[in-house]
Amino acid sequence: MDIPLGFTPAGFSPGFLDHGGPYFLGPAVEGVRVVGLGIMPHHINFEDAAHGGVIATFADVALSHAVYDAERPRLAPSTVTLTVNYLAGVKRGDWLEARVRIDRLGGRTAYTSGGILRGEEQVATMSGVFAFRRG
């Protein structure tokens, strides 16, 4: 799979995310880094499309990464709620980019939203609430 220029391996901590990716970090859009994912054979369901759980995990990864990266020292977000709306199917070989907004970053809670795009086509919308503690 060809990785677009400007994207580098995310190198997220080992564990569950190793199985869902690999994920990539791209340039920032409006101050928040874009997260990328190429759809590979292990993401595909019985209908030859990306499994909905892959898209939901990608949404969670992208939204939580925006919170994690919002401050220094970095925040350690935990998902409170996650909503994903599926707008179009995704196939093997598709390159996806998650664009995130931090709608509100409070004392212990962050509210986020955004979309997952395949080129110019939005294939999902997403929103999430994350809890965290500051140092």
Describe the SSE topology.
Blueprint lengths: L7 E2 L6 H5 L2 E7 L2 E7 L13 H17 L9 E9 L8 E11 L3 E10 L2 E11 L4
The major β-sheet equals:
7 strands, antiparallel
Number of separate domains: 1
**Counting H and I runs of at least 4 residues, what is the number of helices?**
2
The percent of residues in helical segments reads: 10-25%
Q: Would you state the CATH class?
A: Alpha Beta
Large-scale geometry: globular
Rg on CA atoms, Å: 14 Å
Low-confidence stretches: none
Helix-strand pattern: EHEEHEEEE
Across the major sheet, the strand order is 1-2-3-5-6-7-4
Helix-strand makeup class: alpha+beta
Annotated CATH homologous superfamily: Hotdog Thioesterase
Description:
The model has no long low-confidence stretch (mean pLDDT 95). The protein is α+β, with helices and mostly antiparallel strands and 135 residues long. It contains 2 helices and 7 strands, in the order E-H-E-E-H-E-E-E-E. It has one domain: Roll (Thiol Ester Dehydrase, Chain A). The chain has a 7-stranded antiparallel sheet with strand order 1-2-3-5-6-7-4, with helices on one face. Helix content is 16%, strand content 42%.
